[in-house]
Amino acid sequence: MSGRGDWFRSNDSTARTRLMMAGAFVGSLLLLGTSTVFSWPVAVGNAPITVEEERALAFDAPTGSCLTWTPPEGADMKRVDCAQPHLFEVTSNVDISADYPANSPVPEVSRWHDIAKQKCTPGATAYLGGTLDPFGRYTISALKPTDPQWQDGDRKLRCGLQRMAPSGGLLASSGTAAHQDQSNVHDPGTCLALLDNQKIGDPIPCDRSHAYEIVGNVDLGPAFPGDYPTKDAQADKANELCAAVTNEYTGGADLAAKGLTPYPDTLEQESWAAGSRKVDCKVGAKLPDGSGLAPITNSVRGSGTEGSPAPPVPTEPTTTSGTPAGG
To answer: How far lies 14's CA from each of 138, 139, 163, 167, in Å?
Structure first.
């Protein structure tokens, strides 16, 4: 997914590699993250298993399993049906003992990233049907052994796929990633933050100041059955297709009168080659001089709450009648 102007681009610090070591904040705390044992309503036969036992089973779950936990610690990691919201989908379990035999020191964090990229990318690509969209919906991730596990000889890298927010935080997914469209589209009604440097941030409530609101998404595939279309051709077709989507979502609101602009995404060539064809239809606002995005508040949908440019932030302390500022 890419915008037709730099000021609509998301924070793409991970766009090319799309790799995150989930173990950096989860794997290092899993299994041994707590000494307290809680009961968990999951049973094998008639015997309930504990949270710690469930966490151990989740950490070693086979390919195709989906996992979830409470960020950031992940002490309550558990297996869930992939149809349910989850944070990790296992693509492979890779043994790296040939490269790291007994008595090998634990790799540095930066080295773990390289290991995961090398070892997890082939399996994740195969799991997705042979193609991986580097700008798409999913990011290659890995859960690494904890330091105590490493010392005990565990050399298994738990590879998987996750969905990341621009900040690097995790977004829940529903449904299996295997062989699905990897287009990086969002649910209608999602509003994304506007950061100080004109980058796009994470999903936030629409009643807070934000960059734009996703009003729907469209499929460019039928319009371009052949080779990769130019960005201009994509934008023209997306504008045409998004017009109906935007009109339906907003109830026919006069966006121009509110200083708002419908805005579609376009796809990078690498995304097109991977099979991605869907793009978001968005509504945002430009700064008066056209140099970037203006923050907007509230949703463009619904009577009395339609989105509009946010009021300017005062540069001087404000006062109320008879009350000094700060009084």
So the answer is: 11, 9, 12, 10
pLDDT digits (tens, 9 = 90+) for 244-276: 999 999 999 999 999 999 988 999 999 999 999
Question: Exposed, middle or buried: residue 308 (CB in 10 Å: 0-12, 13-18, 19+)?
Answer: middle
Distance separating alpha carbons of residues 93 and 86, to the nearest angstrom? 18
In order, the DSSP letters of 84-126 are S-BSEEEEEEEE-TTTS-TTPPPPPHHHHHHHHHHHHHHHHHH
User: What are the start-end ranges of the H helices in 67-212?
Assistant: 109-127, 147-151
> Which string of b and e fits 216-226 if b means at least 16 CB within 10 Å?
bbbebeebbee
| Burial of 276 from C-beta contacts in 10 A (0-12 / 13-18 / 19+) | buried
8 A C-beta contact, residue 89 and residue 161: yes
77 by Cβ neighbours in 10 Å (0-12 / 13-18 / 19+) ranks as buried
pLDDT, residue 46, reads 55
Predicted confidence band of residue 17 (pLDDT cuts 50, 70, 90): very low
Alpha-carbon dihedral sign for residues 189, 195, 201, 205 = negative
pTM above 0.70, yes or no: yes
Question: Can you tell me the distance from the alpha carbon of 17 to that of 191, in angstroms, rounded to the nearest whole number?
Answer: 25
The pLDDT tens digits for 213-254 are: 999 999 999 999 999 999 999 999 999 999 999 999 999 999
Q: How far is CA 117 from CA 44, 55, 130, 277, in A?
A: 35, 25, 16, 26
CA distance 258 to 308: 6
Mapped onto helix, strand or coil, the DSSP state of residue 52 is helix
How many Å apart are CA 48 and CA 20, to the nearest integer? 33
Residue 148 near residue 290, CB atoms below 8 Å: no
